[in-house]
Amino acid sequence: MDLSNLWFLFVPPLVGAVIGYFTNDLAIKMLFRPYKPIYIGKRRLPFTPGVIPRNQENLAQRTSDTIMESLLTPEELQNLARRLLQTERVQAAILWLLQVALKQIGEDREQKTAKIVGDILRDLTEESLPRLLKVMARRDDFLEAQINQVFDQVLLEFQLSESQARQLSDWVLQVALPPDVLRQAIVDVLTDRNIQVIDESIREKSSGTYWVVANVFGLRNTLTRLRAFCLDEKETANARLEELILSLETRDRLQAWLQSLSLQNLPLSTVRQLRKTTREAVRDYVRERGTEFIQKLGKSIDWDDVSVLLLRRLQSSTAVNSSLEVISKELALVLERYLEQDLEKIVAQVIPILSIDQVVVDRVNATSPAQLETTVQGIVKQELQAIVNLGGFLGFVVGVFQAILLFLN
């Protein structure tokens, strides 16, 4: 066999392998390329654009239908929602939201939250609370238990301390009843008629030595001279009264009396009656003027500043920070109980809202053919290369058979 015959035996396998290899490679590329149709004049060349770009809308719809019918079924979405909304995850999300909200309140430069809280407090004290008080005041037992408790635990056991009694006695003797006020009180009491009444009463009711003094000397002249002395010698009378107060140790006696003053020393019946009258007085005042008092009190308070202070205190409060975890856990449990009952209904309502199928269609349609090619080749690059290699191998095998037939002929 000469050399020319050997070429007839080797050429078919090589040519078959090359043709098979490049034919499959060309076929795979024609799935995506050309990306756009090619026209000669007004006629579009066949096989342009590629198979996938030409049928991209159908591919998008088929992909969407496959995902919704086989992958993201309502049952699978429910299972996905259950895994996503586990109590631990929901609790962590709620805790994070609460912490972010608390931090945002502290970083609120325009104090929007403080203004909202201030408006709420203002409405509560000026509108809501007075209306509620007006309704509750109609009840017969309104504030009965509260007033009794305050009376029993505060007023009944209240007793002045030594320093309080000292301050109160000083106020009585220096402000309420100074010597000048006492002197004027003596003058007001010792009128001519009062002097006559006192003198006649002493004369009639006294006996023994006091009768002799009252009837022989009498009190009319003495009391008249005392009144004249208080009127004519004001400074001297004030000085004498002040000396008398000091000599009689009035301050110490008044202090001891105030310090010993307590409702517990009164008879039980008197205490009960006092408690009843106190309760009725407070209730009548609240019923008649409580609404007006609360409204005036609310208007006198700057609720914006109060709300700022309140929010700052809440933000730095350890009790609030430690309670966030408890609140998030309770909210997560409430949400879990709600989802157990209505998860199926919620998923059925969410699927149309999310429009997952339309999202898939839009995303596939929005993807360029070049991106589709890159994505597909990135996923099945080895498989596509295996197809190309298989084409070359099959071409080689066909060439071998052809070479054998040529050799046999």
Mean pLDDT over the full residue set = 78
Q: Which assembly state applies to the chains in this document? A: single chain
Unreliable stretches (pLDDT < 50, length at least 5) are none
Radius of gyration: 53 Å
How are helices and strands ordered from N to C? HEEHHHHHHHHHHHHHHHHHH
* Outline: rod-shaped
The strands making up the biggest β-sheet line up spatially as 1-2
Helix content: over 70%
Class based on secondary structure composition and strand pairing: mainly alpha
The strand count comes to: 2
Major sheet attributes = 2 strands, antiparallel
User: How much strand?
Assistant: under 5%
Give the N-to-C terminal Cα separation.
13 Å
Instruction: Compute the number of helices.
Output: 19
List its salient traits.
single chain; 409 residues; mainly alpha; two-stranded antiparallel ribbon; 19 helices; 83% helix
